Amino acid sequence: MKLENARKSFGDTSVLKDISLTVNRGDVLAIIGPSGGGKSTLLRCCTLLETLDGGSLSYGDLDVCVNDTQGNAVYGPPSVVRQAKQRFGLVFQSFNLFPHYTVLKNVADAPISVAKVPKAQAEERARALLAKMGLAGKESMVPCELSGGQQQRVAIARALAMNPDVLFFDEPTSALDPELTQDVLRVIRELAAESMTMVIVTHEMSFARDVADHLVFMDGGTIVEEGPAAQVIESPQHERTRAFLRNYGN
């Protein structure tokens, strides 16, 4: 995934100011920063839940939007946007599962309805993914019968079911208590060990240091500092980064 010179405003408020990121296959990128710094908006623009005002976005050889001569973002036709949406998965902080679907249907639904995978094949893969998430035997339950950590692991399985090139996480543990947080972080660690390409907005600093290859610190809609994750967290160069990390005991 490549994002260049991204700009986004809501009314008179500039939320993203000339943001550029490149995430190569197998990379794990962590994005940290204070609330209101632009992290979630950045993720929403990368996953097409919001549109950029300016800049370019591509997934591999697929150009999703490009800058015109005035510097405005021009998106490709609906067919390109549809293709792009099959190249990434997104895990929300609030799970966003379908409450009336079973766990199995939550995971298998998109491959069946969007990717036109035969039902038996989609359900077989869904069962395998659920087993990988430690949820074997939960297939016929509905989300309200699961703990928050279990629901988030269903959400990860659902995102993986479409075989995405990149998996995005928007603060995947912020709605969970510390014990459940560790379950979800363990799953993400395992995906990193399997070289899954991931972009993770997180407040879990030790996790970001240990799991991410690259780390970006955002504040005020800009990238204040970036570099190898351990280096930025242990030896930040910018005073704003140092002040932020002090609040997390780093």
Structure summarized in a few sentences:
Helices cover 36% and strands 26% of the residues. It contains nine helices and eleven strands.
What does this structure look like?
The protein is α/β, with parallel strands linked by helices. It has a domain of 67 residues. The protein is 36% helix and 26% strand. The strands form two sheets. The chain has a six-stranded mixed β-sheet with strand order 7-8-9-3-10-11, sandwiched between helices. A five-stranded antiparallel β-sheet has the order 2-1-4-5-6. Strand 5 and strand 6 form a beta hairpin. The longest helix is centred in the C-terminal third of the chain and has 16 residues.
Q: Strands of the largest sheet, in order across it?
A: 7-8-9-3-10-11
> Alpha-carbon distance between the termini?
30 Å
Residue share in helices?
A: 25-40%
Number of H/I helices: 9
* Relative strand content: 25-35%
DSSP strand count = 11
Structural class: alpha/beta
Largest sheet: 6 strands, mixed
> Which series of helices and strands comes N to C?
EEEHEEEHEHHHEHEHEEHH
Mean pLDDT: 94
Shape: globular
Could you list the spans in which at least 5 consecutive residues all have pLDDT below 50? none
Nearest-angstrom radius of gyration?
18 Å
